Amino acid sequence: MSFTLEIKWDDAALARVITRGRQKFIDVPRAAIQRVAPLVKARAIEISPEKSGRFKKSWRYRTSSLGADGAQLSLENTDTKAAAVIFGSRAHTIFPRNGKFLRFESAQGDVVFTKHVNTPAMPGNNVFQNLEEDEIFQEEVSRTFDDFMRELAANL
How far apart are CA 71 and CA 6, in angstroms? Predict the structure, then answer.
């Protein structure tokens, strides 16, 4: 499951930065995306369902350059059950894969053995859609971009 954020630029994507008498060229859109990426990942973790376990720990991001057109951030969740958390699941029955019984601990801490478990339908928690609709988060991303551009302008 993945979410993509793109930055498009009308002007050239490279900026010359002079640091200690040396020139270097940086890919401005990609550098801006790299500044925002940890913020996006942290927010995805924060709004993930509280009891999602592995899902909450499986967020990864990747940045890439689109050349003079801009840059892109891809946020993904590598958990095998990500689709069930994001889109929900219908009611189903779980059977043992190996052996005759399922073994688990009950809420009271007792060890329970059973031949199958009926799992109720679970509503989805679309983290990607929640990120897009979160206005406070969008403002925070905009501020981070603005701060980056101010720092860049101060180094030119």
Answer: 6
